[in-house]
Design a protein that fits this description.
By secondary structure, this protein is of the alpha/beta class. The protein is built from eleven helices and 13 strands. The strands form four sheets. Strands 3-2-1-4-5-6-11 form a seven-stranded parallel sheet, with helices on both faces. Strands 7-10 form a two-stranded parallel sheet. Strands 8-13 form a two-stranded parallel sheet. The longest helix is centred in the N-terminal third of the chain and has 21 residues.
């Protein structure tokens, strides 16, 4: 297939693009290479795939209406993996317009491209953050998600609603993926594991929010990518059993689906830090702080639908995943043990 991967220089987009190339697909990768975090890491990811004969890279902003329209017109993609977004819960309180521009306007442009050019399947990134104020664990796609706690979460819920509208009006098969705390090599420097590792190695304290009373469904990058690719291959279809008198938020009469992709084994944050300390061979100085605005105490994915429909469940343990990250971090930043 010929696949557009948006955000291809980002954490998830890079690994998805790499996986698609390895199996023989043609990939056109789009990214604006913004400076939300160190662009050197983005270029390092690109360097690993840019020489592949079936890969082409285009630097372009998602909110460039004419640019995105022209890209779809010229390339004639079969399918699209849309994982480009302005990420980060806390940053959404500092720079809210970035989330509207990238996540709302940008996604609209992708949907319009799919609408006008017969895209077979659009798979796009949502987030576990859409569960917001929900406390009924584990989080299920069949739960209502109308109480977001950050603009980032609201933008991701908006993406799901926009996708459903296009699936309903124009018959575009769309599948949204709610990712749960993704980590691993080449991960984002604004995520906890990256920050913790850097500070522990440098002998600096780590900020532990909610006084460490968090549980997170940490999901290793390889498990995320496996789920994305399998779902890309399974084109969304209408649910014949969907009932308008009792509407199920996780399905539709349109060719629209939603899945959680999480490890479904939430880990205490303090346990996560202990695993990291063991891998680094160093203890962390912990600075215990209150919970941050927009944050949630716990995340826990119900992946029943992913398992039933796709036949897949993430399974990498935090012990294995954190060890792989630390190995990569030491090599990438040339740090001796």
């Amino acid at each position: 297939m010929k696949v557009l991967v948006t955000g291809v220089a980002g954490f998830i987009g890079f690994f998805v693009g790499q996986r698609l190339l390895e199996r023989g697909d043609e990939v056109v990768g789009l990214d604006n290479l913004n400076e939300y975090y160190d662009v050197k890491l983005k270029y390092a990811r690109l360097a690993l795939i840019e020489s592949h004969p079936s890969f082409r890279f285009l630097k372009l902003d998602l909110e460039d209406n004419d640019g995105i329209a022209g890209l779809f017109e010229q390339e004639r993609f079969d399918r699209v993996v849309h994982v480009a977004a302005q990420a980060g819960v806390r940053y959404s309180m500092e720079n809210p317009r970035a989330y509207i521009d990238s996540n709302i306007v940008g996604t609209l442009n992708v949907l319009e491209g799919c609408r006008h050019h017969g895209i077979e399947h659009l798979v796009y990134a949502s987030s576990s953050s859409v569960y917001g104020a929900n406390t009924d664990m584990p989080f299920s796609i069949h739960q209502n998600v109308d109480h977001p706690l950050s603009l980032y979460a609201a933008s991701k819920k908006s993406n799901e609603l926009m996708a459903h509208t296009y699936s309903n009006l124009y018959g575009i098969p769309t599948t949204g993926l709610r990712f749960f705390t993704v980590y691993g090599p080449y991960g984002r420097p604004d995520m906890a594991l990256f920050k913790f590792t850097k500070n522990i190695i440098e002998g600096k304290p780590i900020d532990v929010y909610n006084y460490g009373n968090h549980r997170r469904d940490f999901t290793y990058i390889d498990d995320i990518v496996e789920g994305v690719v399998r779902i890309l291959d399974r084109v969304a279809e209408p649910d014949p059993g969907w009932d308008s008198d009792a509407p199920d938020p996780g399905a539709s009469m349109a060719p629209y689906r939603i899945y959680n992709i999480g490890n479904s084994q939430p880990v205490e944050l303090m346990r996560y830090i202990e695993v990291l300390e063991k891998c680094l061979g160093r203890k962390a100085e912990r600075r215990l702080l209150p919970m941050q605005p927009g944050d949630v105490p716990d995340t826990y994915a119900d992946v029943t639908d992913l398992s039933d429909d796709i036949g897949y469940c993430p399974s990498t343990s935090v012990e294995e995943g954190v060890a792989r990250f630390v190995e990569w971090y030491r090599e990438f930043y040339a740090i001796d043990s």
